[in-house]
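**Protein of interest**
===
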Amino acid sequence: MAETTNLNPEEEKVFDPLDMNNYKVEKLPKMQKSGFEKWMARLGGPIAVLVFVLIYWVLKIGFLDNITAESLNPDTCAKAVKRLGEVGLADFIRTNYAMLAIFAAAIVLWVTEAIPNYLTSLLVILGVVLTGVAPQKEAFAQLGHPVMWLNILSFVLASMLVKTRVAKRFALWFVLKFGKNASGVFFSFIIINLVLSMFISATTVKATILLPIFMVVAAIYGASNGNRNNVGRNLVLQNLFAVNIGASGFMTGSGANLLAVSLIAGAVGGYEISYSDWLYAALPLALILLFLGWFIGAKVIFPVSKAEAKPQIEGGMERLRKELESMGKVTFEEIKAVLIFVGVLVLWVTKEYHGIDETTVAFIGAIVALMPGIGIVKWNDVDIPWHLMLFSAGAYVLGTGLNATALHVTLVDTAFDAMGISENTPYWVFYIVLTGLMLLSALVFSSKNMRTMIFVPIAIATAQSFGYPVMSLAFPVALLIEHVYVLPFNSKPAALLYTTNHYSWSDTFKYGITMMGIAWVLIILWGETVLRWLGHTPGLF
C-alpha cells in the first residue's frame, strides 16, 4: 500500500505530477542542519584553534620526540629522510609537530563545517608554509598539480554535455526505449548512470540532471506529491546508489578518485595509475554492485508488487516522449559534443599505445571544445566548482606535508605498536581492517575528499611500514571512496535526493548498510581474485 500525505483539493488540483518543472532542484526543500550540527559548527573553530595550539606549542608527544634517522626507512620515506638530512633532527621533529597540528585542526574544521571547506584548505596551505613544513613554491604549486588540471578540464568537457543537453536527451531516450515496465525502468537508470559517469565527474551534477526524469517516472507508477510506494523508493535510492557506484568505475568519475591516484603516485615515486588500470579493476566491480543493488532493492528490501509494477497514470510515458520531442532534432552541436568526448575516452583507454597521459588528452579535448568556430562552449558556459578545486589543492598540500615529514608512517607505526600488531601480522588482516574502516568512515564523514585524505595515506603508511607494495593496500581502499549513500548527510547527492520525500531515514539506512556490507565482502573477494590477477595484490589467503 502506498503511504499518503493528505493535501487539500486545491493543492492536488494545482500540482501536476508529470510536469518536470515541479522537480527542479531549486523547488525542492533544503535539508536543514540539526541542532547538534549547528552546535558543532559553532564550536568547531575554537576547538580547532585549541587543538593546534596544544599540539604545536604545549604538548610533549613521545612518538614524535623519539623520531631518529634510523627510524625512517630510506626506501619508503625517501623524501622525509632527505628533509631530515637538510634541516637536522631537531627542526625535522618540529616540522612533524607542525604537520600533526595542522592535520588535526583541519580534520576538526572539515568535520564540524565551522567554516567552508575551501577556506579550511586555504588555511592548511598557509599553515604548511608559515610553519616550514614545505617551502612556499612547493605548497603553492599544488594548485597546478596535473590531477588538478585533469579535474578542471573534466568539468570543461562535462559542461559541453550539459550545455548542449545531450545528457538529458540520452536519459529521456533510453528510458522511453527500454523502460517498458518497472524492471526495465530500474535497469535503464543503471545504464544511464554508468554512461554519464564516463563523461561527468561530479556526482551532484548527474543527480541533478536525472532527478526530474526519475521523479516523473515515479509519479507514473503512483509515487508523487507525498505518496510513497516501493517503486518510488527503489527509483530514488537505486539512482543514489548508481550515481556513486557508477563514479567508482572510472578514474575520472569524481575528484576524490583523482586525489587518491595523486596520493598513491606520490608515495610510489613516479608510478602512475592509468585510466585503464582503474577501469579494469573498478568497472567490473561497479557492474556487479549495481546489479546486486537492483536485486536487493527491488526483490528483497523493497519488493515491488504486481500492482505497484503497473503504471498508475495512463499516458505517463507520453509526457516524457513530448519532453524529448520538445528538444527538437539532434543538433550538430550535440553530435560534436559526443564525438569530442568519445575521442577523449578512447585516448584515455589506449594510453599504453600512444603514451599521451590523461591530463594532456583532457587538454586536447577542452581546447577543441573551447575553440572558436569549431568548438561548442565558451568560457562563460563552463561550470567549474572552484571551491572544490581549492579544497582539493589543500588536500594535495596535506599530502605533500605528510610525505615531507613521514608523519603518517610514524602515526601508523605508533598505533600498531600500541595494539600489539607486529611484522608477523598477515597481510589479509591489514586488507580487511583498512577496507572496512574506509567503508564505515562514510557513515561519519560527509566529504569523499576528506576520507580519501585520511585513509589512503593510512593505507600507504601501513604498506610502507610492513614492506608491502603501496598499491596492494592503497588501491583497494581507493576503490571504496564512492560508497557514500547510507544516510542523507553522507554526500551531496544523498542530501539532495532525500528531499524528494520518497523514502525515510530507516529506508535509506536499511538499503545502504546492506549494500555497504555486500561491498565489503566483494572487495575482499576482489583482493583474492581480480586485483591479484592484475598484479595489484599478492592475494589474501
